[in-house]
Design a protein that fits this description.
Layout lengths: L8 E9 L6 E9 L2 E8 L3 E8 L2 H9 L35 E5 L25 H15 L4 E5 L9 H10 L4 E6 L2 H5 L1 H7 L6 E6 L5 H8 L4 H13 L4 E7 L8 H9 L4 E8 L11 H4 L3 H12 L8 E2 L7 E9 L2 E4 L6 H4 E2 L4 E2 L5 H10 L6 H13 L15 E7 L9 H4 L4 E4 L5 E3 H8 L4 H20 L1
Parallel strand pairs: 5-6, 5-17, 6-7, 7-8, 8-9, 9-10, 10-16
Antiparallel strand pairs: 1-2, 2-3, 3-4, 11-12, 12-13, 12-16, 14-15, 17-18
Helix pairs in contact: 2-3, 8-10, 12-13
Bound molecules: iron/sulfur cluster (SF4) (2 copies) and zinc ion.
């Protein structure tokens, strides 16, 4: 008698949260028709099936090949008490230190974007005091020693009255690379501000919001036509040669057909070192978002880059080993007016397994270490260029440029922040993008948006109480 088989491969189990009640629930990872799904089951709200990757081969590569031992912070800030994700953080069960730490200077903003995760706007007055910010910087240093990347964020951080004192305080604490996450309005309107900013340009980068070059898309996502603002901001950033990354929030059906155009535009700007693509997450004030229509996975964006850019193929965009579930990265070299993806320089016989087009590390630990060093989110443009030059040196038969500076390196990075629908707690434990709190906690950005932002304290308390009650019930039974 032949038995009936399920129409999928059962790949793994994990934990997730119910999209309706946010309770931690069981989940399975299933592979079906070349795609990877997470199937979740909540006793109260039933079963949900979520697409986690539309490329099962890529998903398996992330899980099986692009992993490394977790790198720890110097200290942990909370203890394990209620279980993940109720103990953030970082608690000792977290599996990666803070490659990048966000520090929100204010909730105030000169825009009021319909998709703001922080719920910022002109009506939200008030700034964190300098002394509070200094304490938060000290908390990052206590965890990280010399923090790799600190990103000043908000609200709109350039509006903070002590903005330059904050930059000084970060520098004085040995932050290796400082970023400012900005909507660009002040940079466009205030040339003198940019001139002063340029005094900090060593190990400094502007993370410039840049979702689209089309007014309609900008109006939908940002509530205003910001095309002129972006151009003016870039004009100033080019003038003062301030390293810049263009940051694109991607909403399927709105701006996902513009990826190639934005990469092409970025390559033409002398100050721009790369493009970061962030699929929209359902968090904060996000309005007009329907996961069934607007959601994008990392593998879909990877394919879009290949289809649209003319520079990168899908095989050039590789998982980032700190957290391969949510991060992917590709490099191109800009040399003599030409732009060539990094993997084109790699000898396939040595590095790339022809058929599967994946990097074969097993035979060369040193090579693996250098590739993993490069494919990491803890870089500045300068450290990236150094790392890339070192990798090139250790490759046989490579005809790479003798000297590389950050002017030659262009990076494409995909950063997916999981939301209630897509959260896989296994992947959350490897999150390396954290947000510092006034009390010194460093919380993974995804769990922060889900459970720890303003207005969520009551929900978190309830969920923790349930854990306590369930534990007591188990002990007494
Ligand atoms: S996400 Fe990390 S820090 Fe937060 S509870 Fe889980 S393991 Fe701990
Ligand atoms: S997304 Fe950024 S620019 Fe828009 S309102 Fe929020 S903080 Fe301001
Ligand atoms: Zn539920």
């Amino acid at each position: 008698m032949s038995r009936k088989a399920r129409p999928y491969l059962f790949y793994d189990t994990t934990s997730a949260v119910c999209t309706t009640c946010l309770r931690v629930i069981e989940a399975k990872i299933l592979l079906k028709d070349g795609k990877a799904y997470m199937e979740k089951w909540c006793p109260a709200h039933g079963t949900e099936r979520v697409l986690v990757s539309d490329d099962a081969d890529y998903y398996r590569q992330c899980r099986e090949l692009w992993i490394k031992p977790p790198e720890m912070p110097n200290t942990f800030n909370t203890r394990m008490q209620y279980g993940c994700p109720y103990d953030c953080g970082l608690c000792p069960d977290h599996m990666q230190h803070s490659c990048l730490t966000l520090l929100e200077l204010t909730d105030h903003c000169n825009l009021r974007c319909p998709i703001c995760y922080a719920g910022s706007g002109p009506e939200r007055a008030g700034y964190r005091t300098l002394s509070e910010i200094v304490c938060m910087l000290d908390a990052i240093v206590a965890n990280e020693g010399e923090p790799d990347v600190v990103q000043l964020s908000g609200g709109e951080p350039t509006l903070h009255p002590d903005f330059f004192a904050v930059l000084d305080a970060a520098r004085a604490r040995g932050v290796r690379h400082l970023m400012v996450n900005t909507n660009g309005v002040r940079l466009a309107q205030d040339r003198e501000f940019c001139a002063r900013l340029s005094e900090y340009r060593r190990a400094f980068e502007v993370y410039l919001q840049f979702d689209s070059r089309r007014p309609e898309a900008l109006k939908e996502m940002r509530g205003a036509d910001l095309t002129g603002v972006r151009e003016q901001a870039l004009q100033h950033l080019n003038e003062f040669d301030i390293s810049t990354t263009l940051v694109v929030t991607l909403k399927k059906g709105v701006n996902d057909e513009e990826i190639g155009d934005i990469i092409g535009y970025a390559l033409g700007q002398s100050c721009v070192r790369g493009v970061t693509l962030q699929p929209i997450q359902d968090a904060g004030r996000v309005q007009g978002y329907d996961a069934r229509v607007h959601r994008l996975t990392v593998s879909e964006i990877r394919r879009r880059i290949a289809e649209q850019s003319g520079v990168f193929t899908a095989a050039d965009i590789l998982p980032v080993p700190c957290n391969p579930d949510t991060l992917a990265m590709g490099y191109a070299l800009k040399v003599g007016g030409e732009v060539v993806a990094l993997t084109r320089y790699l000898d396939p016989a040595v590095l790339v397994e022809g058929g599967r087009n994946t990097i074969s590390f097993e035979h060369d630990g040193e090579l693996r270490r250098r590739v993993f060093d490069l494919f990491s989110t803890n870089h500045s443009p300068a450290s990236q260029a150094n790392c890339l030059a070192e990798l090139m040196c250790c490759l046989p038969r490579v005809s790479a440029p003798a000297e590389l500076t950050y002017h030659n390196v262009f990076r494409v990075l995909i950063v997916q922040f999981m939301d209630a629908l897509s959260l896989d707690i296994r992947a959350l434990k490897k999150s390396c993008i954290h947000i510092v709190q006034p009390d010194g906690r460093l919380i993974p950005f995804e769990s922060f948006n889900l459970l720890y932002r303003d207005g969520r304290a009551g929900l978190l308390r309830t969920l923790r109480h349930e854990v306590v009650r369930a534990t007591r019930a188990r002990r007494t039974s």
